[in-house]
Amino acid sequence: MTGDGERCSGLGDRLAGPVRTVWAKHDRDTDGWLPLWRHMEDSAAVAGLLWDRWLPNSLRGLIAESLPGGEADARHLVAWLASVHDIGKATPAFACQVDQLADRMRAEGLEMRTARAFGPDRRMAPHGLAGQLLLSEWLESLGWTGRQAGQLTTVVGGHHGVPPDHGQIKALDDRLHLLRTPGTSRPLWRRVQDELLDACADEFGVRGRLAEWRTVKLPQPVQVLLTAVVILADWIASNPELFPYFPDESRRSGEERVAAAWMGLRLPPSWRPDVPGEDVQELFASRFDLPPGAKPRPVQEAAVRLAQEMPEPGLLMVEAPMGEGKTEAALAVAEIFAARAGAGGVFFALPTMATGNAMFPRLLQWLERLPAKDGARFSVLLAHSKAALNEEYADLMRESRQPITAVDIDAVAEEWRPSHATRNAPADLVAHEWLRGRKKAMLSSFVVGTVDQLLFAGLKSKHLALRHLAVAGKVIVIDEAHAYDTYMSAYLDRVLSWLGEYRVPVVVLSATLPAARRRQLAEAYAGAREGDATFEALEQTTAYPLLTAVAPGREPVVEQPEVSARGGNIQVERLDDGLDVLADRLAAELADGGCALVVRNTVKRVLDAARVLRERFGDAHVTVAHSCFIDVDRAAKDSDLLRRFGPVEKAAGRPGMHIVVASQVAEQSLDVDFDLLVTDLCPIDLLLQRVGRLHRHQRGEAQSGRPERLRTARCLVTGVDWKRDVPTPVRGSVAVYGAHMLLRSAAVLLPHLDAASHPVRVPQDISPLVQGAYTDAPAGPAEWTEAMAKARHAHDEHRADQAGRADTFLLAPAGRPGRPLIGWVAAGAGDADDSRAGRAQVRDSRESLEVIVVQRRGDGSLATVPWLADGRGGLDLPQDRAPSPKAARAAATCGLRLPIQFSYADVMDKAITELEELYVPAWQVKDSHWLAGQLILALDADCQTHLAGFQLRYSERDGLEVTRA
Predict the structure, then answer these.
(1) How high does pLDDT run on average in the chain?
(2) What is the 3-state secondary structure (H, E, C) of 232-248?
(3) Which of 285, 321, 458, 793 is most buried by its number of CB atoms within 10 A?
(4) Which residues make beta-bridge pairs with 34?
């Protein structure tokens, strides 16, 4: 551990004596160590490289405009803050932790107690907080006030994920013996700390800038970004594979050390596109697989033109019917916005894992067509908890696998990998190894994931600064924006307000957006007060399709593009609720063949209907689809539905007569087409989503490819007792959606029900129906008034309750410039991630239980379920050792989220206790990452089991059925 012969450079050359014994890192296995000065220099160098080669231009500009010296000041500030972030390690409270290193410091006069002697008080001085106080003291000695210094010192205090609050600062301020040992060595401790801070100020070029920076009032978003960059620089510089410890590294210069580490990291730079020079037709032809002769639709043309003409990129909301190419429009706009704003990537946020999985290959295809400079590498991520089971993403991870280690810079040969020869993309798409960590993954340039990943940016949680960095440097696309309730909307609105502060371009997509919600989204992004008259027009317009553009500091612009030739009339009819009524009606409608979709609001209603319909029509003519299938079966169901009922040019084997009985999984992102729709009553925007699966594609001239009886699009609305004075939805529907929105939907549909002369016209009637259902204006006949008032009261109470509960962990809006981030995430939710607990924090849902389903054989051994394809069924899962990688991954594809019955606290506790009886220690090892930490649900040979007082039955055909035992 001697420092003799250390090859110094830069910061090290400025230091001598006791300060060089202060340590920052130690490896208990090898006894290797790293001096604090070396880690400070490493961190500063990495921060500079992140600034130069990785940080998107938009964020560099945002930081730079806050400082008098612009970008030069900004780069100096980032490197300097990274250099001083660990100054709190130059304290007895930290240094005492490794005896031999502490003894080395004591030998130079830096006295300190042992860790045991400090006792629990030592926990009051975590080195981040200690560093915040030391840096503040140093700045105040140069004439700064505490508040001025706080803008910068909280970066140091928060570099482990949570900026300290006032109580923590006061507690340490009352225990200064933790920062410097009282007595004769106290002046030496002070001198060492000052020497390090002085040397950093000189080495990293801020000494002459501090006086001018003293008057700067940094916006809170800039403070967040500075914190995030420092965290990243620290993490990279703390990786011993990249930055090896002494004594092995003691004879290499700092420049050599950093160059080797950065080359070994191979971090892909951010995307830096040029503004597309093509016209709209050429742009779409080059980026998307358009059929010959196809032209962009009017909505797509208008969206691209608005993106080009906005004074600067901002918020663009696209409301258009299903099938109008909103996804392609969003990607085209994202490219334009990114080029104009300097954004470094795209995050495409979707409501569910299933919709995320469907979007991921579309993103990859788009990326393959993007122009890119030779040798460009784009980092790509599928962001949800089961992404590793997605085949496209798994392939990308396998192709991208690389060790993260420093390289010998004198032995670098031509960079070539066998996988390069198999890729035709202008840019190499990689799932970068270092960007796969739970807290780092969203930093990839191109991300497809669930909207939860975006909403987490509004949740007070640890390492929130990294989440903000991840979204602040991208263009954000939010799909299915109508699908979020009051609870989720509270988080979305707060996130939008921060995105507006960061000037992040945002594209919001929706088929059916209530006017009041449109206004709320615009106000949130613009940072306007609720009810600002500037946004009043957004709530009054009934135009559809509709594009709304909100540029920073400008009044919103609305535009109604032309309607494409797609669309038509939908006959809407009542259908009494009853399984026999349903079977009889389908028998009559499908007498000459045809494909019908029956959508139910609960899984129980799906299975009950399927049982009766199979008795009437036979097993081969009825398919079930709902959310309670194991992951691999759910994916197979989706693929099967697309194969049989998808677009004419892609589908194969469309049956002559078939009935699909589905839950809400049929509402989103499945490009399927049916001749007849039967649906439970639901909120009107969701009902219109379901209608989008009816006559979705042209099948012959005037739909002549459909059975004659079904050439007119018809939607039968059931799940309601229509015979009562006031329609009464079934209990399951009320439990899911509430009576208020169901009655409002029935009210706006009333003029169309059973009225052949008054069909629902798509798209012309979409906006009037949605706005009618979501306004406060009276709706429905007079005799409905009392029932609707009662339902409205319950609805308002529920929304108020949702808003109140959402506020518990909701991040505050950005504070005024100059206000330090002290206590920014105080009383937060801890770590936020895509776990069952994490999702429950940003969705108004109970914490759910997820299990991996396996089968227990008669002899007690475990195996994967037998019907898995490609030789993955019936594989042994030994309990005395880790299963083979093939078997473990096959089992992991059988994840299942248990239904709501298991989300109530007492039932969940009982279920977890019973599931933990099948705890296999041999699976809880690093080599068994697919199964480690998972709850295992073992089915018997008949695919049944009991759990927490319920009987569970599973089948590949029907999924999970749950009944009281």
Answers:
(1) 89
(2) HHHHHHCCCCCCCCECC
(3) 458
(4) 25
